[in-house]
Amino acid sequence: MEEKINVKEEKKVSFKEKYGVDFRSFWILVRMLLQDKLKISFKANKKQSIIKVVSLVLGFVALTALSYIFYYVVQLLHLFSVLSYIPLTVPSLISSVLLILGFLGVIFGLNRTLYYSNDNRLMITYPCNGNTIYLARIFVYFINEYIRNVVIQVPLFLGYMLVMGFNPFMVLWLLLGFAFITLVEVLLGALLSIPTYYVSRFLNRNSIIKTIVFLVIFAAIITGISILVYIIPEEIDIFTNWGPYFTKIQSFLNGYRRFFPPFYSLTIALIGDLNGFNIRGFTFDTLYVYLAFIGLIGLTFTLSIFIVNPIYFKLASESFEFENDGTFSSKNTNKRSYIHSQLHKETLLFVKDSSYLTSIIGTFIFLPIVLSLLNKIFGAMNVNAFGERIVAVVNVLIILVVSLNSNSVVAKSYSSEGNAFNYNRVYPKKSFFMLLSKNVVPFIIGTISIIVSSVLFGMLKDVGTLQIILMIVSIELIYAGHMLYSSQLDFTSLTSQFMSQTSQSKAQLASTILAFVLPLIIVVLFFLYLSDHLVYAYVKLLVLGLIVFGVCLWNYYYKVKLIYKEGK
Question: Which among 292, 27, 52 has a CA at the least distance from the CA of 184?
């Protein structure tokens, strides 16, 4: 009898050890993970934390202002309604698209965070059960995702609410609503992260299949964009013949409300209902939506604890336990030159880092797609000479902003190697090329995208060949100069492995700031140049490019020479 009691007690203890939560360890882990995820720690780095918080607040205010301006202009022009109001389907449709894209990001982000994080090596050794670590990771990811939704999604609705005259206190209900949405997204994402992990592991182990899958996805995106470009009419006359366009817009919005009622009901639950005459803050739809949320949260949390948690440690350790198995199994018998070897090494590092690869390639695939759509719309409009100047300036601005912002990834390429980068200082070769080689692959990808984007602009807007060539060379010089500037920000600020994350943050912030400021200065001058002579304007743009590249190249060379001279 006593033996049976002991067995039952052992089972109770084992269940508690497996599924219980050590709240003291939980909050310690949450603080550690939050500090690493958000880069906010007022004790460790008060200045950087203040800058981070202020940046988030400014971003929120700026997006709210843009949202307000958009809805105000739309209401003024009666684009979506004959009455002086904007149908609720407009912000609902925009928010739904963002939610779907954001949820896909949550799935892949949780897959990366739960199973491929480098700190898994450390966290699986902590003196607490897997449930505590797993829930700490989920909670931190929820906080980070909630902040993202507040900064991006809430301004979209807040601008609409201000224009439409909603009660300002409804924003508190909006913030609560997004807490429910984010929690459901994260818990569902945690469940879907398991099949995502097995798919990603299969693709990583089968590079040929992985390449084919990426090519198919890329082809599907290009096909979809091409269809979109094709269906845009050759001429758009919204001023004298607005009726047909208005009818199509109304049909599209009504179709969204009819075929996607859950998303529309979700919008009503977030901000209330608006029918053109009055605003109702709470309806039965709101109650049903939040009851559904509570049920989903309970169900997904339970499934997450009893399905994901038991195999979390296994998958987290499995993802790196044999990651280098067989990589160096054969003897290297190929003799390569220093230049060839260095470029080969940097290409392998670039391809291996999936976040680096996705960021660069994704950005430069996005660029020509956006410009082709934009210029097809511009080409369908009958604009005057002043309008043509605006179109040229907008194209240059978009290419510069997108390409220069991609260099924020370059601004962490050296420090991401950690202590391995420090060994390059004793390499018996010229340091200038060794440092420069890390930029070759992203520069080639960026160059191809810039050329394609510029040629598309020339074809769709019938711009002269000489002007396009001058434009390409000018943007290339500015892009290369900013890349050199971003690179030297990284390798000059890194002092130790301990400081690498802080160095990355500062270098990327400085690179991003210049990526917005420099294009604005360039396009303002370019706009002024266009008022004189068309070809001369592009020649002057080329001169600006030469100046930017020359200054950045001299600064880069000076920093390399200074640092490596001190190292010797």
Answer: 292
Whether 230 contacts 58, CB under 8 Å? no
Tokens linked to 433: 């090329």
Half-sphere exposure of 490 (CA within 13 A, CB side): 28
> CA Rg, the chain, in Å?
27
Model confidence band, residue 9 (pLDDT cutoffs 50, 70, 90): very low
- Distance, in Å, from the CA atom of 232 to the CA atom of 514, rounded to the nearest integer, reads 35
Both tokens assigned to 564: 């490596």
pLDDT in tens, 522-558: 988 988 888 777 788 889 999 999 999 999 999 888 8
With contact defined as beta carbons under 8 Å apart, do 190 and 137 qualify? no
Pick from 134, 97, 115, 130: nearest CA to 196: 115
Cβ-Cβ contacts under 8 Å for 276 (sequence gap 6 or more): 81, 83, 85, 87
Instruction: Return the axis-axis angle of helices 440-461 and 385-405, rounded to nearest 10°.
Output: 160
Please write down the long-range contacts of 285-292, taking CB distance under 8 Å and 24 or more positions apart. Answer: 289/265, 290/180
Report residue 417 as tokens.
């190697």
Q: Which of 468, 136, 491, 76 is nearest to 309 (CA)?
A: 136
Closest CA to 220 of 228, 210, 208: 228
Helix (H, G, I), strand (E, B) or coil at 280: strand
Nearest-10 crossing angle of helices 500-530, 46-77: 40
pLDDT at residue 44, as a whole number: 57
Measure the CA–CA gap between 561 and 559, rounded to whole angstroms.
5
Mean pLDDT of 491-515: 62
Higher pLDDT pick, 462 / 106: 106
Element (H, E) at 274: strand 273-274
pLDDT one-digit tens code per residue, 404-441: 888 877 777 676 665 555 545 555 566 666 777 777 87
Of 72-86, 420-434, 488-502, 516-530, highest mean pLDDT? 516-530
Maximum Cα–Cα distance for the chain, whole Å?
Answer: 101
Give SS3 for 279.
strand
The pLDDT of residue 268 = 84
Q: 407: which 2 tokens?
A: 């260099």
| CA proximity to 542, closest of 485, 486, 468 | 468
130 Cβ contact partners less than 8 Å away, ≥ 6 residues apart: 18, 309, 310, 312, 313
| Cα gap 245→427, rounded to integer Å | 65
Helices and strands of the chain, counted as H and E runs: 22, 2
- In one-letter notation, the amino acid at residue 54 is V
pTM: 0.66
- What whole-number distance in Å separates Cα of residue 399 and Cα of residue 160? 30
CA distance 77 to 518: 34
Q: Which residues pair with 280 in a beta bridge?
A: 273
Cα(172)–Cα(424) distance, integer angstroms: 53
> Side chain identity at 75, as an amino acid letter?
Q
Distances (CA, A) of 345 to 118, 296, 357, 436: 22, 48, 15, 13
Strands (E), 231-387: 273-274, 279-280
